[in-house]
Amino acid sequence: MEALAASAIAVCCLALAIHSTSSTRTAQIVPATDEPVQVAVTPAPAVRPRIEVVFVLDTTGSMSGLLEGAKQKIWAIANRLASGEPRPELRVGLVAYRDRGDEYVTRKSDFSGDMDAVYAELLAYQAGGGGDTPEHVGQGLHDALNAMQWSAGDNVLRLVFLVGDAPPHDDYQDGMTTAELAAQARAKGIVINTIQCGSMAETTPAWQRIAAATGGQFASIAQDGGVVAVATPYDVQLQALNNELAGTVLSWGSVSQKMASQVKLGNRASMSASAAAEAASYSAKTATMNAEDLLGALDGGKDLAEIPRAELPEDMQAMSAGERADHVANVRRKRDALNEQIRAVAAEREAYLKDAERAAGAGAGFDGQVLETLRKQAEAVGVAY
Protein backbone atom coordinates (compact mmCIF):
# COMPACT_ATOMS: atom_id res chain seq x y z
CA MET A 1 0.00 0.00 0.00
CA GLU A 2 2.81 2.42 0.91
CA ALA A 3 4.52 1.60 -2.40
CA LEU A 4 1.28 2.31 -4.30
CA ALA A 5 0.83 5.67 -2.55
CA ALA A 6 4.41 6.64 -3.29
CA SER A 7 3.90 5.81 -6.96
CA ALA A 8 0.75 7.95 -7.11
CA ILE A 9 2.52 10.89 -5.52
CA ALA A 10 5.34 10.57 -8.04
CA VAL A 11 2.91 10.56 -10.98
CA CYS A 12 1.14 13.67 -9.66
CA CYS A 13 4.42 15.50 -9.22
CA LEU A 14 5.46 14.58 -12.75
CA ALA A 15 2.16 15.78 -14.16
CA LEU A 16 2.45 19.07 -12.24
CA ALA A 17 5.97 19.58 -13.55
CA ILE A 18 4.87 18.92 -17.14
CA HIS A 19 1.92 21.35 -16.77
CA SER A 20 4.18 24.00 -15.25
CA THR A 21 6.68 23.65 -18.07
CA SER A 22 3.94 23.81 -20.69
CA SER A 23 2.43 26.93 -19.12
CA THR A 24 5.78 28.60 -18.96
CA ARG A 25 6.36 27.98 -22.66
CA THR A 26 3.03 29.46 -23.71
CA ALA A 27 3.66 32.54 -21.58
CA GLN A 28 7.06 33.27 -23.06
CA ILE A 29 7.46 36.84 -24.34
CA VAL A 30 9.08 37.19 -27.73
CA PRO A 31 11.80 39.82 -27.45
CA ALA A 32 11.39 42.95 -29.58
CA THR A 33 13.41 43.28 -32.76
CA ASP A 34 14.66 46.26 -34.73
CA GLU A 35 12.53 45.28 -37.74
CA PRO A 36 9.83 47.93 -38.57
CA VAL A 37 6.27 46.83 -37.92
CA GLN A 38 4.17 46.81 -41.11
CA VAL A 39 0.74 48.33 -40.47
CA ALA A 40 -1.93 48.21 -43.17
CA VAL A 41 -3.46 51.65 -43.65
CA THR A 42 -6.65 52.17 -45.64
CA PRO A 43 -6.38 55.48 -47.50
CA ALA A 44 -9.13 57.98 -46.84
CA PRO A 45 -11.46 58.50 -49.81
CA ALA A 46 -10.42 61.44 -51.95
CA VAL A 47 -12.51 64.56 -51.45
CA ARG A 48 -13.90 65.80 -54.74
CA PRO A 49 -13.16 69.44 -55.47
CA ARG A 50 -16.23 71.66 -55.43
CA ILE A 51 -16.98 74.64 -57.65
CA GLU A 52 -19.59 77.08 -56.35
CA VAL A 53 -20.79 79.77 -58.76
CA VAL A 54 -23.30 82.55 -58.24
CA PHE A 55 -24.49 84.37 -61.35
CA VAL A 56 -25.51 87.92 -60.41
CA LEU A 57 -27.61 89.06 -63.36
CA ASP A 58 -29.00 92.45 -64.26
CA THR A 59 -32.61 91.70 -65.28
CA THR A 60 -33.69 95.17 -66.35
CA GLY A 61 -35.29 95.70 -69.76
CA SER A 62 -32.04 96.16 -71.69
CA MET A 63 -30.81 92.69 -70.67
CA SER A 64 -33.38 90.54 -72.50
CA GLY A 65 -30.88 89.20 -75.03
CA LEU A 66 -28.38 88.17 -72.35
CA LEU A 67 -31.06 86.44 -70.28
CA GLU A 68 -32.32 84.41 -73.22
CA GLY A 69 -28.77 83.46 -74.08
CA ALA A 70 -28.08 82.39 -70.49
CA LYS A 71 -31.16 80.16 -70.54
CA GLN A 72 -29.96 78.59 -73.76
CA LYS A 73 -26.39 78.06 -72.54
CA ILE A 74 -26.62 77.20 -68.83
CA TRP A 75 -26.62 73.47 -69.64
CA ALA A 76 -23.62 73.88 -71.93
CA ILE A 77 -21.72 75.62 -69.13
CA ALA A 78 -22.61 72.85 -66.65
CA ASN A 79 -21.75 70.15 -69.17
CA ARG A 80 -18.32 71.59 -69.90
CA LEU A 81 -17.58 71.96 -66.20
CA ALA A 82 -18.51 68.30 -65.66
CA SER A 83 -15.69 67.38 -68.05
CA GLY A 84 -13.02 68.47 -65.57
CA GLU A 85 -10.40 66.06 -64.26
CA PRO A 86 -11.14 65.17 -61.56
CA ARG A 87 -14.81 65.88 -62.14
CA PRO A 88 -15.80 68.60 -59.66
CA GLU A 89 -19.00 68.83 -57.71
CA LEU A 90 -20.89 71.80 -59.15
CA ARG A 91 -23.27 74.04 -57.18
CA VAL A 92 -24.91 77.04 -58.80
CA GLY A 93 -26.81 79.95 -57.27
CA LEU A 94 -28.63 82.87 -58.91
CA VAL A 95 -29.25 86.49 -58.00
CA ALA A 96 -31.35 88.78 -60.20
CA TYR A 97 -31.11 92.51 -59.54
CA ARG A 98 -32.81 95.66 -60.76
CA ASP A 99 -33.20 98.92 -58.85
CA ARG A 100 -35.36 100.63 -56.28
CA GLY A 101 -38.76 101.44 -57.70
CA ASP A 102 -38.79 98.37 -59.97
CA GLU A 103 -40.90 95.27 -59.40
CA TYR A 104 -38.11 93.97 -57.18
CA VAL A 105 -34.61 94.97 -56.17
CA THR A 106 -33.25 91.41 -55.97
CA ARG A 107 -34.46 87.86 -56.34
CA LYS A 108 -32.22 85.02 -55.29
CA SER A 109 -31.97 81.25 -55.43
CA ASP A 110 -29.49 79.53 -53.12
CA PHE A 111 -26.90 77.01 -54.26
CA SER A 112 -28.13 73.80 -55.81
CA GLY A 113 -26.44 70.82 -57.36
CA ASP A 114 -29.69 70.08 -59.20
CA MET A 115 -29.18 71.70 -62.60
CA ASP A 116 -32.84 71.11 -63.49
CA ALA A 117 -33.73 73.32 -60.51
CA VAL A 118 -31.25 76.01 -61.57
CA TYR A 119 -32.64 75.90 -65.11
CA ALA A 120 -36.23 76.19 -63.85
CA GLU A 121 -35.31 79.24 -61.77
CA LEU A 122 -33.49 80.85 -64.68
CA LEU A 123 -36.47 80.30 -66.99
CA ALA A 124 -38.57 82.39 -64.60
CA TYR A 125 -36.28 85.42 -65.04
CA GLN A 126 -37.73 87.98 -67.43
CA ALA A 127 -36.25 91.32 -68.39
CA GLY A 128 -38.21 94.38 -67.27
CA GLY A 129 -38.03 97.68 -65.46
CA GLY A 130 -34.96 99.85 -65.55
CA GLY A 131 -35.06 102.59 -68.14
CA ASP A 132 -32.43 104.61 -66.32
CA THR A 133 -28.96 104.15 -64.95
CA PRO A 134 -27.30 103.23 -62.62
CA GLU A 135 -28.80 100.00 -61.14
CA HIS A 136 -28.61 98.50 -57.65
CA VAL A 137 -25.53 96.37 -58.34
CA GLY A 138 -24.54 96.62 -54.69
CA GLN A 139 -27.63 94.80 -53.43
CA GLY A 140 -27.08 92.05 -55.96
CA LEU A 141 -23.50 91.55 -54.81
CA HIS A 142 -24.52 91.80 -51.16
CA ASP A 143 -27.02 88.96 -51.59
CA ALA A 144 -24.48 86.86 -53.46
CA LEU A 145 -21.91 87.24 -50.71
CA ASN A 146 -24.16 87.08 -47.65
CA ALA A 147 -27.41 85.28 -48.52
CA MET A 148 -25.86 82.14 -50.05
CA GLN A 149 -24.71 79.08 -48.13
CA TRP A 150 -21.07 79.08 -49.23
CA SER A 151 -19.03 76.00 -48.36
CA ALA A 152 -15.87 76.11 -46.27
CA GLY A 153 -12.66 74.26 -47.10
CA ASP A 154 -9.54 74.54 -49.22
CA ASN A 155 -10.99 72.32 -51.97
CA VAL A 156 -13.81 74.77 -52.78
CA LEU A 157 -13.60 77.33 -55.58
CA ARG A 158 -15.97 80.21 -54.75
CA LEU A 159 -16.89 82.41 -57.70
CA VAL A 160 -19.31 85.20 -58.56
CA PHE A 161 -20.06 86.27 -62.12
CA LEU A 162 -21.48 89.79 -62.16
CA VAL A 163 -23.20 90.35 -65.52
CA GLY A 164 -24.81 93.64 -66.51
CA ASP A 165 -24.63 96.79 -68.59
CA ALA A 166 -25.19 99.65 -66.15
CA PRO A 167 -22.89 101.05 -63.43
CA PRO A 168 -23.63 100.62 -59.71
CA HIS A 169 -25.66 102.98 -57.53
CA ASP A 170 -22.76 103.62 -55.15
CA ASP A 171 -24.45 106.86 -54.14
CA TYR A 172 -27.02 105.03 -51.99
CA GLN A 173 -26.19 105.92 -48.38
CA ASP A 174 -27.85 103.01 -46.56
CA GLY A 175 -25.75 100.15 -47.89
CA MET A 176 -22.22 99.07 -48.71
CA THR A 177 -20.48 100.44 -51.78
CA THR A 178 -19.24 98.00 -54.41
CA ALA A 179 -15.67 98.75 -53.27
CA GLU A 180 -16.60 97.69 -49.73
CA LEU A 181 -18.37 94.60 -51.06
CA ALA A 182 -15.32 93.65 -53.12
CA ALA A 183 -13.18 93.89 -49.99
CA GLN A 184 -15.67 91.69 -48.15
CA ALA A 185 -15.57 89.12 -50.95
CA ARG A 186 -11.79 89.01 -50.84
CA ALA A 187 -11.86 88.47 -47.08
CA LYS A 188 -14.26 85.55 -47.57
CA GLY A 189 -12.16 83.96 -50.30
CA ILE A 190 -14.73 84.71 -53.00
CA VAL A 191 -13.57 85.83 -56.45
CA ILE A 192 -15.82 88.21 -58.38
CA ASN A 193 -15.56 88.05 -62.17
CA THR A 194 -17.31 90.82 -64.10
CA ILE A 195 -18.84 90.65 -67.56
CA GLN A 196 -19.96 93.93 -69.08
CA CYS A 197 -22.71 93.76 -71.68
CA GLY A 198 -22.49 96.59 -74.21
CA SER A 199 -20.16 99.54 -74.04
CA MET A 200 -21.54 102.02 -71.52
CA ALA A 201 -18.51 104.12 -70.58
CA GLU A 202 -19.47 104.54 -66.90
CA THR A 203 -19.72 100.78 -66.38
CA THR A 204 -16.27 99.74 -67.57
CA PRO A 205 -14.12 101.24 -64.78
CA ALA A 206 -16.52 100.04 -62.08
CA TRP A 207 -16.55 96.47 -63.44
CA GLN A 208 -12.77 96.47 -63.81
CA ARG A 209 -12.26 97.78 -60.28
CA ILE A 210 -14.55 95.15 -58.71
CA ALA A 211 -12.83 92.29 -60.54
CA ALA A 212 -9.31 93.53 -59.81
CA ALA A 213 -10.03 93.97 -56.08
CA THR A 214 -10.93 90.28 -55.72
CA GLY A 215 -8.44 88.71 -58.15
CA GLY A 216 -11.16 88.18 -60.72
CA GLN A 217 -11.36 88.62 -64.49
CA PHE A 218 -13.09 91.38 -66.46
CA ALA A 219 -14.63 90.71 -69.87
CA SER A 220 -16.70 92.73 -72.29
CA ILE A 221 -19.32 91.17 -74.57
CA ALA A 222 -22.05 92.33 -76.93
CA GLN A 223 -25.15 93.95 -75.44
CA ASP A 224 -27.27 90.92 -76.36
CA GLY A 225 -24.82 88.49 -74.76
CA GLY A 226 -23.13 87.42 -77.97
CA VAL A 227 -24.33 83.84 -77.55
CA VAL A 228 -23.86 81.67 -80.64
CA ALA A 229 -25.84 78.44 -80.99
CA VAL A 230 -23.99 75.97 -83.19
CA ALA A 231 -26.14 73.15 -84.54
CA THR A 232 -24.58 69.70 -84.92
CA PRO A 233 -25.65 66.49 -86.71
CA TYR A 234 -26.01 64.86 -83.29
CA ASP A 235 -28.46 67.25 -81.62
CA VAL A 236 -31.72 65.64 -82.69
CA GLN A 237 -30.59 62.18 -81.65
CA LEU A 238 -29.44 63.45 -78.26
CA GLN A 239 -32.70 65.37 -77.85
CA ALA A 240 -34.62 62.11 -78.30
CA LEU A 241 -32.32 60.35 -75.84
CA ASN A 242 -32.79 63.21 -73.38
CA ASN A 243 -36.55 62.64 -73.51
CA GLU A 244 -36.07 58.91 -72.95
CA LEU A 245 -33.76 59.64 -70.03
CA ALA A 246 -36.39 61.92 -68.50
CA GLY A 247 -38.80 58.99 -68.75
CA THR A 248 -36.65 57.04 -66.28
CA VAL A 249 -37.17 59.58 -63.50
CA LEU A 250 -39.26 58.10 -60.67
CA SER A 251 -40.63 61.19 -58.93
CA TRP A 252 -41.06 60.63 -55.21
CA GLY A 253 -41.58 62.58 -51.98
CA SER A 254 -44.32 64.98 -50.96
CA VAL A 255 -47.00 66.19 -53.35
CA SER A 256 -45.12 69.46 -53.87
CA GLN A 257 -41.87 67.59 -54.55
CA LYS A 258 -43.53 65.38 -57.14
CA MET A 259 -45.05 68.46 -58.78
CA ALA A 260 -41.64 70.17 -58.86
CA SER A 261 -40.19 67.12 -60.56
CA GLN A 262 -42.91 67.19 -63.22
CA VAL A 263 -42.19 70.86 -63.93
CA LYS A 264 -38.51 70.07 -64.40
CA LEU A 265 -39.29 67.16 -66.71
CA GLY A 266 -41.61 69.41 -68.70
CA ASN A 267 -38.79 71.92 -69.09
CA ARG A 268 -36.58 69.20 -70.53
CA ALA A 269 -39.25 68.24 -73.02
CA SER A 270 -39.51 71.82 -74.32
CA MET A 271 -35.77 72.49 -74.73
CA SER A 272 -34.23 73.30 -78.07
CA ALA A 273 -32.31 70.44 -79.67
CA SER A 274 -28.90 71.91 -78.80
CA ALA A 275 -29.83 72.61 -75.17
CA ALA A 276 -31.32 69.13 -74.82
CA ALA A 277 -28.11 67.65 -76.19
CA GLU A 278 -26.12 69.47 -73.49
CA ALA A 279 -28.57 68.45 -70.76
CA ALA A 280 -28.46 64.79 -71.79
CA SER A 281 -24.66 64.84 -71.92
CA TYR A 282 -24.41 66.47 -68.47
CA SER A 283 -26.81 63.96 -66.91
CA ALA A 284 -24.97 61.02 -68.45
CA LYS A 285 -21.57 62.29 -67.28
CA THR A 286 -22.73 62.87 -63.73
CA ALA A 287 -25.19 59.93 -63.62
CA THR A 288 -27.75 62.23 -61.97
CA MET A 289 -31.19 63.58 -62.72
CA ASN A 290 -33.30 65.96 -60.63
CA ALA A 291 -33.36 66.12 -56.83
CA GLU A 292 -36.75 64.36 -56.65
CA ASP A 293 -35.58 61.28 -58.55
CA LEU A 294 -36.01 58.05 -56.56
CA LEU A 295 -32.96 56.38 -58.11
CA GLY A 296 -30.80 59.25 -56.95
CA ALA A 297 -32.22 58.98 -53.43
CA LEU A 298 -31.49 55.26 -53.33
CA ASP A 299 -27.94 55.91 -54.57
CA GLY A 300 -27.60 58.34 -51.68
CA GLY A 301 -28.44 55.66 -49.12
CA LYS A 302 -32.23 55.85 -48.90
CA ASP A 303 -33.85 52.51 -48.10
CA LEU A 304 -36.71 51.69 -50.49
CA ALA A 305 -38.46 49.59 -47.85
CA GLU A 306 -38.62 52.56 -45.44
CA ILE A 307 -40.27 55.02 -47.83
CA PRO A 308 -43.95 55.61 -46.92
CA ARG A 309 -46.35 54.34 -49.57
CA ALA A 310 -47.77 57.84 -50.20
CA GLU A 311 -44.31 59.20 -51.04
CA LEU A 312 -43.62 56.58 -53.69
CA PRO A 313 -44.35 57.24 -57.37
CA GLU A 314 -48.04 56.64 -58.02
CA ASP A 315 -47.50 53.56 -60.18
CA MET A 316 -45.42 51.93 -57.43
CA GLN A 317 -47.81 52.44 -54.54
CA ALA A 318 -49.93 49.33 -55.26
CA MET A 319 -46.89 47.08 -55.80
CA SER A 320 -45.59 44.56 -53.30
CA ALA A 321 -42.12 45.08 -51.81
CA GLY A 322 -40.65 42.58 -54.26
CA GLU A 323 -42.38 44.16 -57.24
CA ARG A 324 -41.07 47.58 -56.23
CA ALA A 325 -37.51 46.31 -56.02
CA ASP A 326 -37.83 44.63 -59.43
CA HIS A 327 -39.32 47.76 -60.97
CA VAL A 328 -36.51 49.96 -59.65
CA ALA A 329 -33.91 47.48 -60.94
CA ASN A 330 -35.50 47.47 -64.41
CA VAL A 331 -35.62 51.27 -64.59
CA ARG A 332 -32.01 51.46 -63.43
CA ARG A 333 -30.89 49.05 -66.16
CA LYS A 334 -32.71 51.15 -68.74
CA ARG A 335 -31.10 54.35 -67.47
CA ASP A 336 -27.62 52.81 -67.41
CA ALA A 337 -28.04 51.72 -71.03
CA LEU A 338 -29.28 55.18 -72.06
CA ASN A 339 -26.40 56.90 -70.27
CA GLU A 340 -23.90 54.69 -72.05
CA GLN A 341 -25.49 55.48 -75.41
CA ILE A 342 -25.62 59.21 -74.63
CA ARG A 343 -21.96 59.32 -73.61
CA ALA A 344 -20.94 57.72 -76.90
CA VAL A 345 -22.96 60.12 -79.07
CA ALA A 346 -22.01 63.14 -76.93
CA ALA A 347 -18.32 62.38 -77.38
CA GLU A 348 -18.75 62.61 -81.16
CA ARG A 349 -20.73 65.83 -80.77
CA GLU A 350 -18.07 67.44 -78.57
CA ALA A 351 -15.36 66.54 -81.09
CA TYR A 352 -17.46 68.17 -83.82
CA LEU A 353 -18.03 71.32 -81.75
CA LYS A 354 -14.34 72.00 -81.11
CA ASP A 355 -13.83 73.26 -84.65
CA ALA A 356 -17.39 74.40 -85.35
CA GLU A 357 -17.62 76.73 -82.33
CA ARG A 358 -14.22 78.22 -83.04
CA ALA A 359 -15.22 78.92 -86.63
CA ALA A 360 -18.48 80.53 -85.47
CA GLY A 361 -16.73 82.78 -82.93
CA ALA A 362 -18.67 81.27 -80.03
CA GLY A 363 -15.94 82.03 -77.51
CA ALA A 364 -16.65 85.76 -77.56
CA GLY A 365 -20.13 85.45 -76.01
CA PHE A 366 -21.43 85.07 -72.46
CA ASP A 367 -20.93 81.31 -72.22
CA GLY A 368 -17.52 81.41 -73.87
CA GLN A 369 -16.24 84.05 -71.44
CA VAL A 370 -17.63 82.20 -68.42
CA LEU A 371 -16.07 78.91 -69.50
CA GLU A 372 -12.67 80.41 -70.32
CA THR A 373 -12.54 82.10 -66.92
CA LEU A 374 -13.66 78.96 -65.11
CA ARG A 375 -11.06 76.83 -66.88
CA LYS A 376 -8.28 79.08 -65.62
CA GLN A 377 -9.58 79.54 -62.10
CA ALA A 378 -10.41 75.85 -61.55
CA GLU A 379 -6.68 75.13 -61.42
CA ALA A 380 -6.76 76.58 -57.89
CA VAL A 381 -8.59 73.46 -56.67
CA GLY A 382 -6.70 71.02 -58.89
CA VAL A 383 -9.27 70.66 -61.67
CA ALA A 384 -7.89 70.56 -65.23
CA TYR A 385 -9.77 71.09 -68.49
Could you say what the CATH architecture of the largest domain is?
3-Layer(aba) Sandwich
The helix count comes to: 12
Q: Using the coordinates above, name the CATH class of the largest domain.
A: Alpha Beta
Oligomer type:
single chain
Strand order of the largest sheet: 3-2-1-4-5-6
End-to-end Cα distance: 99 Å
Total of domains: 2
Shape: globular
Helix content: 40-55%
Uncertain segments? 1-32
Q: Strand content of the residues, in percent?
A: 5-15%
Task: Identify the CATH homologous superfamily of the largest domain.
Answer: von Willebrand factor, type A domain
What is the alpha-carbon Rg in Å? 31 Å
CATH fold-level topology of the largest domain = Rossmann fold
Mean pLDDT: 91
For the largest beta-sheet, the strand count, sense and barrel status come to: 6 strands, mixed
The beta-strand count equals 6
**SSE topology string:** HEHEEHHEHEHEHHHHHH
Describe this structure in words.
This protein folds into two domains: 50-228 and 361-381, Rossmann fold; 235-357, no CATH class. The protein is 48% helix and 12% strand. It is α/β, with parallel strands linked by helices and 385 residues long. Strand 2 and strand 3 (106-112) form a beta hairpin. The protein has twelve helices and six strands. The longest helix is centred in the C-terminal third of the chain and has 40 residues, at 321-360. Helix 4 runs parallel beside helix 5 and helix 9 packs across helix 11. 37% of the residues are buried. Residues 1-32 have low confidence and may be disordered. A six-stranded mixed β-sheet has the order 3-2-1-4-5-6, with helices on both faces. It is globular and about 65 Å long. The protein has helices spanning 2-26, 64-81, 115-123, 137-146, 178-188, 203-214, 235-246, 255-269, 273-286, 294-299, 321-360, 366-377, and strands at residues 50-58, 89-97, 106-112, 156-164, 191-197, 218-221.
